[in-house]
């Protein structure tokens, strides 16, 4: 069943303005090309026919530039004369122009920029659709997308007023915030005096909370993403779902009434809801039997179309649920969830390690095996050297030595590490801390944490009570807190931090948590009580549907409305694929 609104929540801003701005800018860029054509004719130069013009709308990637350059050079060899225009979105990088210059085509191509960085996927979800952000920044240390994030925040503050209260965790969050503030200062006065619509903004780095992203999702929308891969707000359901020989592309957002009621539900509740929905729908169809001609006419003109649409969507989601159930039963999903919960709670670690070894030996899935190894590593603050070497050896023997570089990537990102270096640093840190003041000790700890890329998950989990203590069985039909998104076993760290700050109205009392998380941003100002209940959460490196569902639940309970801005929607498989050097 869908959750009721506990408290009145503020209205969400209308994001259609973002679409209109992006569309108008693209039209302007394309019209500029036509103006160039007119100039050619005025100067009595031979105009290039429309069939001899090529316009490339591309992401600023090196491989895209090499492709464009190969086409231009092929035309030159064939003696074909054309005009070429490359429009980069969301921004133009000097490195891309350098590639065109190296390939000898820079003079033949005109370059422009389409600053389309915010794509509204739903009424409360904006995506920058930059899946490469995670690898570029958190693995390669490439900061080129920071400016794109800052520009996006600047656009939002221009459209919807200043953000009175800003909080951030992580180095990327800090850099994005500082660059955004610089842009605000350069255009001072644009938002000055305006009434803020959004009261709080939270900037969160993905590496602050790897655990949530690595856990199996059990809310309906998360499971659909894990099973079928949601892309740009839509999903392709194959014949196994549609019960026909054709696939069906379905847009998953609030306009789908059936989906909107089950998207945030724990999967165990979804079948019951769909069954009840089917009975209600049948009852509405059965009303026709007692109607006279006039009533029947009204029914056909006003209700029948809507009922047929709802029936079609209901069939699709029932098919999706059946397909998910078949796949999860085949994978022994319950045993997998049990192992994940044991890792989160820190119990039966030896049994969990044996389960992962069996998973590897059976060659279930290279991505799944990596995910479980990373979850074990982060929850235990690194693997003991013996286990690390054993699991790594078994993995390479089972899936192939070509995965060796992937282990190097995971280690650099802090996803799969050995305990020994962290233990050594902890010992040194402890001795030094006794010789200096508490404030200095905190800074030293931050420095050591940075070098070791430690997760500190156990300490943070204890401080924030991420593992709920429940007497008896957790009631998933009437959830009591955000832990329901992981079957009552774990409250997402990112969501708990936001909840605590909103309750305390500052970082006050969270000093130890901030020290463990390392690097924070704070800006607090006065704002109206109405705007304070509208909150923008920015995930740098991707967010999961589980986190979105958890914060929607918090909003319903406390009377908040959350807007989500993410560099891309992610899940455990996408994270592992971003780190992998072996492409599927």
Instruction: Classify the beta-strand content into a percent band.
Output: 5-15%
Number of strands: 12
User: What is the distance, rounded to the nearest whole angstrom, between the alpha carbons of the first and last residues?
Assistant: 38 Å
Fraction in helix: 40-55%
Mean pLDDT: 85
Low-pLDDT runs: 1-5, 39-44, 424-435, 441-452
Specify the structural class. Answer: alpha/beta
Helix segment tally = 25
Secondary-structure map:
Elements: H1 16-42, E1 53-58, H2 62-78, E2 83-88, H3 94-102, E3 109-113, E4 119-122, E5 125-127, H4 132-138, H5 146-160, E6 165-169, H6 171-186, E7 200-205, H7 210-214, H8 220-228, E8 234-237, H9 239-242, E9 248-251, H10 257-262, H11 267-286, H12 293-330, H13 333-345, H14 349-361, H15 366-379, H16 385-399, H17 404-413, H18 419-433, H19 438-452, H20 457-464, H21 493-504, H22 511-517, E10 520-523, H23 529-532, E11 534-540, H24 545-558, E12 561-566, H25 572-579
Parallel strand pairs: 1-2, 2-3, 5-12, 6-7, 7-11, 11-12
Antiparallel strand pairs: 4-5, 6-10, 8-9
Helix pairs in contact: 2-3, 5-6, 11-12, 13-14, 14-15, 14-16, 15-25, 18-19, 20-22
